[in-house]
Amino acid sequence: MNEQRWVSVWGNAVSVAENRPERYARDITIRYPIHIPFGGSAIRLTFDNYCGTEPVTLNKTTVFYGGSFHSVSFGGRAAVTIPAGERVVTDPLDICLNEGEIVQVSFYLKDFTLMRSVVYACGPLSEGLYANGDQTENAQIDIITSRRTHLFYFLSNVSVRTAGDNRAVVCYGDSITAQDWPDYLALRCFREGYGKTAVIRRAASGTRILREYSCLTYESYGLMGSSRFAHEVPTDGADTVIIQQGINDIIHPVGVDVNVFRPMSDLPTVEQLIGGLKEYIALARAFGMKVYVGTLLPMGGWRTDAAFRQALRHGCNDFIRTTDLIDGCIDFDKALRDPDRPDYFRPEYDSGDHLHPSRAGYERMAMEIPAALLK
Asked: Following CA atoms 51, 57, 59, 63 in sequence, which dihedral angle do they give, to the nearest 10 degrees?
């Protein structure tokens, strides 16, 4: 008998919102569509205020599925208050979920709420909306009173109770992983018949392995690895993590004469950068997970590109390609680089900023994931 267990089908990191005067919201509904890769008999949601400095109250939460709204509870109650720095998990909602369908998760914030715990994510499966008023039981929210968003507030994980042979793969990283390739990987799993694997994104733009900003100006660049990895990577039903991070450690420092918040003392040595990756690997092993690491992508032409930064990138990539500490290297760099100018993207894979891939580049990254990892 294939016993059932909880497996995550959707997820995001929790990072720090840009600090603006309008960072508080009230009387607002937030809705996110969740694509279900495999069926199940129940669903539960995780809401996370990890980066918050004030409590957050969810006044009402619903799931729309199969043409009906279903109320979600927390310890038997409709409303819940999440203390700063903590997270809550809903009561299981018993509902028969079918593979390939969509669940709409909506939650209502009645009173002034600090919208600090958030992450940006984009891709063909990553878009939500927010709307004025309590719209948690409105199937057709008016376009006049709503707006699309790629910002994901508080909701950090969705799990289903499902067959024991279903599982999840975690994609961990920075803005490159916060953008499209995990969504294209999820679509590839559906297209190529890897229906027992869910792809979970844990990525936050601007983040570095070894540093984080303590100033108001740049705190939205997110938490350092030692504050993120252990919080994000353990995931219901996940047995594998793909790590792709390190480029921000290399490109951010410019010197206080250029930017007072970005001293050159923040620039790591290649040994320090590799040491950060080794800490990730050790933690993932402690969680009982297989570990794959993606090489750092080309950055030729980026505004802080320099020979010494490229040397750091190459040194890090040499380690990733040769270490026996991991289950495999995913050579994103080799796949996307220009063979005639290997520090640069192929033109068709360059978004135009010379750091982030184009849509075609993200699709190529998804295709680089070994089939054996998805089975």
From this structure: 20
